[in-house]
Design brief:
Blueprint lengths: L18 H29 L2 H23 L4 H32 L5 H22 L7 H30 L3 H42 L1
Helix pairs in contact: 1-2, 1-4, 2-3, 2-5, 2-6, 3-6, 4-5, 5-6
Length: 218
Amino acid sequence: MSAHCCEHDTPKPETVLNLPRYRKILWIALLVNAGMFLVEIGAGLQAGSLALLADAVDFAGDALNYGVSLAVLASALAWRARAAMLKAASMMGFGLYVLGAALWSLWHGEVPQAFTMGVVAVLALLVNLGVAWMLYAFREGDANMRSVWLCSRNDAIGNVAVLLAALGVFGTGSAWPDLVVASLMAALALHGGWSVLRQARAEIGQARSAEAHHGHVH
């Protein structure tokens, strides 16, 4: 999921001719992911599903990732790293919230609405498959392009997990499948956020060293 979306290299020269189309696709992906974040937040609260809320976190992280990828096309390394740190802080904050909510639900939670979970999970799956299909032509590009395509492809796996959680809730009449999937997705968000944070800090240090060297030369 978003843990796979933390590389932000500058596009290679041979991919520049495709940048207008790539930029357009990234804008579509950003808007669609931001929209699905709002849908899943609302549905997750209404249905009482932490798995949907966790998947909403993933959509928010992806929207930030697409925004960072758009910035990559024109921005310097230090600014890309600062944007990535914002993404990391958001991912880890939401991940902690979902884990805390899961612990609270162990004692006080109710059984979520399996039907709402299933419908929204199918919608989210179709959205991620659509974005992955649009980005398929760029899967062999630079690290940034590859990571963005892998991001959408791997997110579809998360949507399938939410769908399985919905089936588990429906079949067992228990909240346990929802809590398990939510906890796993929150753990992935925390891991991904930490990875992005470490890389961003390294990139900021790299940018400062380059600036210091440049200043020393002059």
